[in-house]
Write a structure and sequence with these properties.
Rossmann fold; 45% helix; 2 domains; alpha/beta; disordered N terminus; 300 residues
Length: 300
């Protein structure tokens, strides 16, 4: 790389850093009010498979990704290098790729902890947290504008939004909705979740009442006694890590208790394990499908 190229790239990084800082408050426009566009040789590393997919959908290219992008989401990332896991990406591997921008998840500690290291190395970073469709909409608009493909917003934001509105009209509860319990299960634990979980946000948007809102202690330690007392009409489960290991743990901790079988949700066949592609990973352009999936279950 020539000295001129290095200087130009550093100036680009500095300009992008300022732009992204402004973008967190004002959208994706830079100081001049013009959208930022990634050039053909713009080097981007993404530390989260869901965001990597969104970046690719928006017309971007990647030089580095975490292994979940390939192993879990099955993305075609071309020649992009694997720079670690989603929870433990390697700062050294990222820096070695000389990226112009690193996209990370704000709610994953191992990624947020890398920010100072990357910025001190002169690398621009952009963090996102996506729990709702509106969060995704903002992220996707940023990506489409940066990659110079604003026309893709219609396909990947507007159409899913129409699906969501249709699902809410068809399946949403205008009055009191059903009482639901949302559980996140993994190989060594189970917790109730509320609208800080993707599925929880959708259930709330459809008008359901999450029993964990009335029993916040469930968020730390799921108590079967409290579940029995609340007697939810639906129980939904999302899994982390290996699904069977998570479900085996759930079985051992809760389902083996005879009182579990007395719950309304269990007796009436309203216990559902939700698919990972729509409820654990961010569904991105399939967000409308997530609404429709839950809506159909609630309408049974």
């Amino acid at each position: 790389m020539t000295n001129f190229s290095r200087i130009f790239r550093r100036l680009t990084v500095l300009a992008l850093t300022l732009t992204l800082a402004l973008a967190s408050c004002k959208g994706s426009s830079g100081p001049s009010g013009q959208p930022v566009h990634a050039t053909e040789d713009f080097r981007v590393v993404c530390l989260y498979g869901s965001y990597a997919e969104a970046w690719l959908l928006s017309g971007g290219k990647l030089v580095g990704v975490t292994e979940d992008a390939v192993k879990e989401r099955g993305l075609d990332v071309g020649d992009a290098e694997i720079i670690g896991t989603v929870k433990e990406p390697s700062a050294e591997a990222v820096i070695a790729l000389s990226p112009d921008l690193v996209i990370f998840s704000e709610d994953i500690a191992g990624q947020a902890d890398m920010v100072d290291v990357l910025t001190n190395a002169g690398i621009a970073v952009s963090g996102y947290r996506v729990d709702t469709f509106e969060d995704y909409s903002n992220l996707m608009r940023d990506f489409c504008e940066m990659n110079g493909h604003k026309e893709l917003i219609e396909e990947y934001v507007d159409k899913p939004r129409e699906q969501i509105e249709s699902a809410k009209e068809k399946y949403g509860f205008k009055g009191d909705g059903p009482r639901v319990l949302l559980i996140r299960a993994f190989s060594s634990g189970i917790k109730a979740k509320t609208d800080d979980e993707l599925a929880g946000a959708i259930l709330k948007d459809l008008g359901c009442k999450n029993i964990a809102d009335e029993h916040p202690s469930m968020l730390e330690d799921l108590s079967l006694e409290e579940v029995i007392s609340a007697d939810p009409e639906f129980i939904f489960v999302t899994t982390m890590g290996k699904e069977q290991a998570a479900l085996d743990y759930l079985q051992g901790q809760i389902e083996a208790n005879p009182a579990w079988e007395g719950l309304t949700a269990i007796k009436e066949g309203r216990f559902h394990v939700l698919p990972k592609d729509l409820f654990h990973y961010k569904p991105n352009h399939r967000w409308g499908e997530s609404y429709e999936y839950l809506g159909e279950l609630l309408g049974e």
